[in-house]
Amino acid sequence: MVVPLIGRLKGHEYAALVGGFFFLVFETAISFIIMLLPIPIIQWFHNHSRTLFHRFSVTHANGKSEAEDVADAIRKAKDFGELCQYWGYTHEEHVVLTKDGYLLGLHRLPAKRGQRKRSPGTSTGKPVVYLHHGLLMNSEVWVCLTNAERCLPFVLAEQGFDVWMGNNRGNKYSKKSVHHDPNSVKFWNYSLDDFAWHDIPDSIQYILDITMSSTLSYVGFSQGTAQAFAALSIHPQLNAKVNVFIALAPAMSPRGLAAPLVDGLMKASPTLVYLFFGRRAILSSATTWQAILYPPIFTSVIDTSLRFLFNWHSHNIPYLQKIAAYAHLYSLASVKSVVHWFQIMREGAFQMYDDDVSAFGSPGGRAYRPARFPTKNIVTPIVLLYGDKDSLVDIQMMLKELPDHTTVTRLDGYEHLDILWGKDIDKDVIPEVVNALKVYCDDSCGSPDKFKDGFKVFER
Questions:
Q1: Average pLDDT, the chain
Q2: Which of 239, 280, 418, 448 has CB atoms 3.0–4.6 Å from 422's, for a disulfide?
Q3: What are the backbone dihedrals phi and psi of residue 85, each rounded to the nearest 5 degrees, phi first?
Q4: Is 12 a catalytic residue?
Q5: Closest CA to 228 of 240, 237, 215, 238
Q6: Residue 453 has what pLDDT?
Q7: Which of 390, 394, 418, 426 is catalytic?
Q8: How does 278-316 read in b/e, with b if 16+ C-beta sit within 10 Å?
Q9: Looking at residues 106-120, what average pLDDT do you find?
Q10: Residue 21's pLDDT is what?
């Protein structure tokens, strides 16, 4: 019998493994207890955490500013629709059935602020752009900003685009399958491979069918870029349907985590994640803690976690933006998809999921190499925007695995989440995205006159 850990871990790593196991048992027990508590008791904990925060906070002042009111409204918005409604946009909801039976939620902004499309679910005649979120996220991350000028989907809608936002299987808007119960292990048995084989191409085809367009533009963030890299590489025909792929904070083969202990532990045996979290959804108790903790405390917990795991300090994200956005940051994802990422980090290659768990512990190594995504075969134009302070982006390695027509823009001082919620994205990020869309839509969507509602090119 193969024991993957023997000979792979050092003494302090074993101690971390045992300590982590007991912490997760404790956290699971607490979450179970909380789940049984009545709402008034949960509210009591929330109120007392607020009291404690204000007692020890030196920055608290009486009364709320207008900016605080906005942040509070964004934080309290229950779903994508309420976030759009707050800023005056009318959205559409669509559902796409993947070929393997998952039902995915799609969100659409077909019109400008204050306008309403007369015939929902039909073509607008506008150029189409499709945005896709990252790991442990959903479509809300695109629209939970504290001012509309920094919100990419709203800007694109104002620029005359038909804007769509996708959701991965298992998250808040896609937790349904025609074959499996969401409480079953089979429902959560998916990795990046399944996003690439089904979620991305099936969503794109649905959007093109509804809009009656021949092509669309794809904008991905973090894992949303990895899913597109993978999908475009294994579906040659998909390249003809995507006129440009804009990758924000692109992810392909990260070096690893900033926390040496966690990084070494997970790379030594990626399947340890199964031991910690099981084989369903990962970190499913996060929303419970969010309900109990006062928002500034919850924000501090998230900041500390990001600093520990990724060495991100989030100095470019305003405090009130964190208060508003962190409430929409987390959504369910499979443990298997996280294991897949640790396999990629361990091997240093953008590969498909390795089902041979025992191979990691083989003394003589493996007699095979897991299949890799052939990303050099991508024909679609690729535009990369990355922050030079982003610990998850190895730009040199990435460029070696991408076709020569890839273009790159470096954002000085930007970390990973800064590209979504940074204070200056309206100056540094959004203009780059809009201009790239304009360049490639000129070729694939026709002349600039195609933008019936007007299209403004940003000046650099």
A1: 87
A2: 418
A3: -60, -35
A4: no
A5: 238
A6: 43
A7: 390
A8: eebbbebbbebbbebbbbbbbbeebbeebeeebebebeb
A9: 94
A10: 60
Q: How far apart are CA 454 and CA 343, in angstroms?
A: 46
Residue 151 has pLDDT above 60, yes or no: yes
- Note the pLDDT tens digit of each residue in 332-355: 999 999 999 999 999 999 999 998
Cα Rg of the chain, angstroms? 22
| Residue 281 to residue 165: CA distance in whole angstroms | 22
Instruction: Name the band, by pLDDT with cuts 50, 70 and 90, for residue 448.
Output: very low
Rounded to an integer, what distance in angstroms lies between the CA atom of residue 431 and that of residue 457? 8
- Interatomic CA distance for residues 389 and 114, integer angstroms: 38
In the predicted model, what is the mean pLDDT of residues 90-117?
A: 97
The catalytic residue among 416, 418, 426, 428 is: 416
Is 132 a known active-site residue? no
Asked if 123 is an active-site residue, the reply is no
Q: Which residue out of 203, 222, 233, 314 is catalytically annotated?
A: 222
**In three state form, how does the secondary structure of the chain look?**
CCCCCCCCCCHHHHHHHHHHHHHHHHHHHHHHHHHHCCHHHHHHHHHHHHHHHHHHCCCCCCCCCHHHHHHHHHHHCCCHHHHHHHCCCCCEEEEEECCCCEEEEEEEECCCCCCCCCCCCCCCCCCEEEEECCCCCCHHHHCCCCCHHHCHHHHHHHCCCEEEECCCCCCCCCCCECCCCCCCCCCCCCCHHHHHHHHHHHHHHHHHHHHCCCCEEEEEECHHHHHHHHHHHHCHHHHHHEEEEEEECCCCCCCCCCCHHHHHHHHHCCCHHHHHHCCCECCCCHHHHHHHCCHHHHHHHHHHHHHHHHCCCCCCCCHHHHHHHHHHCCCCCEHHHHHHHHHHHHHCCCECCCCCHHHHHCCCCCCCCCCECCHHHCCCCEEEEEECCCCCCCHHHHHHCCCCCCEEEEECCCCCCHHHHCCCHHHHCHHHHHHHHHHHHHHHCCCHHHCCCCCCCCCC
Q: Residue 191: name the closest of 287, 286, 270, 95 by CA.
A: 270
